[in-house]
Amino acid sequence: MPEDRSPKEERRKLYINQLLRPLLSDTCSTVRQCAVVAAARLAEHDEGVARQLLNGGMVTVTLENLNKYNVYYKRSALYLFRAVAKHNEELASAIVRLGAWST
To answer: Which class would CATH give 7-98?
Structure first.
């Protein structure tokens, strides 16, 4: 993948948390689950997005909600944790420090 990113593309990354994070507290379980899957799919393909999701608190909110929702939400959350952690050791250890593997 080329590391040449346009400023427009970089700005788009900044809005991911703002757009997806409110959906994590939606009353509809399908919307919550789809928001987590969307974040995971974005994080899976771009380390910058993975960092932004981690630093922006979306991973933390997902982890806090883990025991509140059904098994499908939990599977989606695990997908998000794996997508963020796969990029490098730093992101993986940040996921572990949050307590994602002890839950």
So the answer is: mainly alpha
